[in-house]
Each structure stands twice: as structure tokens, then as C-alpha cells.
Amino acid sequence: MLAGVWAELTDLVLPAECAGCRAERLPLRQGVCATCSAGLAALRPAPVRPTPAPPGLPDCVALGSYRGALRESLLSYKERGRHGLARPLGRLLAEVVAEAVGGRRPVLLVPVPATARAVRARHGDHLRRLARHSADRLRAAGWPVAVAHPLRAVPRPDSATLDSAGRAAAARDAFRLREGRSGAVRRLAAGRVVVLLDDVVTTGVTLAAVARRLENAGIPVYAAAVLAATVRRGRG
């Protein structure tokens, strides 16, 4: 474990709206108020698994449930232009990677790729930024870490508008290997555990689809690390 990540991050960030609770005119630490900072710092990574789990879903670890300050911070980062949250959220994601791997080992981080449309809408690839900060945090703690981007995402419907069957259908063919990259990534993965990175897991079909693409290319996936897991209240 990499203890005390959030508490170490003391830079003040504007605007003065808390990313976690959206309260205004409060002192902020890395974009969140003291109450939300304490709540995020108290989260501990734990295994999660959707029910039913899609075939091929690797073991998955999440920092917490997709609610409260964690949910709002992720939405502020992804949808509200608060790109400064990439550093603290990425460092919290490093905590999840450490728990998923179980001990200091050579690791290859593979973030789930975003579509070109999502990258344009969010003014950058939000998971690439998180992966970079996660890798920096792990390296600072003595972990041998590499990051790879062997896949590209093809256009697909917004998963937020789909039920579980729709997500599965959209994810099945949503990713392609980048031309000429599989051999280089196989060499980079040799001797390392491969960990997929995502922000939120709901049904698990996206992570399962990415894992299948990599494993079909001879790149076995060890685990997936995510910031939040959606609490499902029924099967859709």
C-alpha cells in the first residue's frame, strides 16, 4: 500500500468550488474541501466483481463505490474540465494498483483507450493522464513501472445510455490493436504483470473486452484497477 496519498497533496487549486461536494467559498486542498479530502483519504481499495460477471473479466480492485465525493470528483475531472484533479486521482489509482498486484513487482499499466470523440469533448484523454500520475507515484515508491497504449477505441454509443446487454454488444468490437504495436508491447510486458486501468466499472464488459483483445495478442492480463465501482440495484 502507498499510504497517505491524499494527505500529502497540499497545493491549493482554484476554482473555489469543491470538486467532491460542490460547496463554494471553502478552503480547498487539491480541489476538494477538508471534509471531502478526509473522506477520499479514508477509502481503501478492495476487490469488486459485477454480478453477473462477463466472460474474460480479470480480477478487479476498486478504491470505492461510485458515490459521494469520489463520484463527484470523477465527474468534475471528466466532465467539468477540472483537469488539475488528474494528479490526486491518479495517485489514488496507484493505491489501487498496489492492492491489485499485492506487492512491489514490475508492472505494465494499460489504460482503457477513449474514443476520439470523447478525447475531443474532454480536451484530452482522461485515463492517459491518470495512468501517467499513477506510474509516477508507483515509481517514487520504488516500483518498476511502464505504461503502454496498444489499443485504440472505435466509435461506439455512450455507455451511460445503454443497459447491460447494450454495453456488452457495444464493447464486443469496440477496441482494435494499433497496427504494428503488439510485438513491442509483448516484449515490454515480458516479466511484468499487466494491469488494466479504468475510472469506473459497472458491468465489467469494457474491461473484459480489452482483456480479450490483449490476450488474443499474446499479452495476458493480471488484474484491473479502477477508481470506482457502480453499485447496481438491479439487472438491466
Summarize the SSE layout with pairings:
Blueprint: H1 5-8, H2 34-41, E1 46-48, E2 60-65, H3 68-79, H4 86-101, E3 107-111, H5 116-121, H6 126-140, E4 145-147, E5 151-153, H7 164-172, E6 175-177, H8 182-189, E7 193-201, H9 205-216, E8 223-229
Parallel strand pairs: 2-8, 3-4, 3-7, 7-8
Antiparallel strand pairs: 1-2, 5-6
Helix pairs in contact: 4-6
Could you explain how this protein is built, in words?
- This protein is of the alpha/beta class and 236 residues long.
- Helix content is 38%, strand content 17%.
- It has helices spanning 5-8, 34-41, 68-79, 86-101, 116-121, 126-140, 164-172, 182-189, 205-216, and strands spanning 46-48, 60-65, 107-111, 145-147, 151-153, 175-177, 193-201, 223-229.
- It has a six-stranded mixed β-sheet with strand order 1-2-8-7-3-4, with helices on both faces. Strands 5-6 form a two-stranded antiparallel sheet.
- Strand 7 (193-201), helix 9 and strand 8 form a beta-alpha-beta unit.
Largest sheet: 6 strands, mixed
Distance between the termini: 35 Å
How many helix segments? 9
- Structural class, from secondary structure content? alpha/beta
One letter per element, helices H and strands E, the order comes to: HHEEHHEHHEEHEHEHE
Q: How large a portion of the residues is in β-strands, by DSSP E?
A: 15-25%
Strand order of the largest sheet: 1-2-8-7-3-4
How many whole angstroms does the radius of gyration measure? 17 Å
Round the mean pLDDT to the nearest integer and report it: 84
- The residue fraction in helices comes out at 25-40%
Q: How many strands?
A: 8
User: Spans of 5+ residues with little confidence (pLDDT < 50)?
Assistant: 6-14
Q: Overall 3D geometry?
A: globular
